[in-house]
Design a protein that fits this description.
Helices cover about 35% and strands about 20% of the residues. With about 130 residues, the protein is of the alpha+beta class.
Length: about 130
């Protein structure tokens, strides 16, 4: 699964944008699923094959996708995933795309399952329990 196949899974064309603070002005305050990839879709090795997907997440509740992206860009001291994300943003240029909709959690689960099937592991930032900082 790479950014091309995840676009099809999420129902169409995803618009990739640089993952930086300015994205918060554009990000919706709606429920949805979002994906981080390497800039320009550059692929990296996995246990099996290569992918450009770094993280697959969903946003629910008040603030939606905008709130989750804010957390990734400005993590609090207890937010392990967001801290890993922020650490990696300093080393790898990333892009983000999203799709709004109430089925975000199920699409996130489906995407993670397909990713794991294809590469025998989860995307790097979805791997809980790994200390990056």
């Amino acid at each position: 699964m790479n950014s091309s196949t995840i676009a099809a899974l999420l129902g169409g064309n995803l618009r990739w944008r640089a993952l930086q603070s300015e994205i918060l002005e554009e990000a919706p305050e709606e429920v949805g699923v979002y994906v981080f990839r390497t800039k320009d879709g550059r692929r990296f090795g996995r246990l099996r094959g290569e992918s450009d997907i770094i993280y697959i997440g969903s946003a629910k509740g008040q603030g939606g996708i905008r709130r989750r992206l804010y957390s990734h860009l400005h993590p609090g001291p207890m937010q392990a995933t967001n801290k890993r994300s922020r650490w990696l943003q300093d080393k790898v240029q990333m892009e983000v795309a999203w799709e709004c909709g109430e089925t975000a959690a199920s699409k996130e689960g489906l995407a993670l399952g397909l990713y794991r099937r294809d590469y025998w592991e989860f995307p790097p930032l979805n791997r809980a329990g790994i200390e990056w900082v």
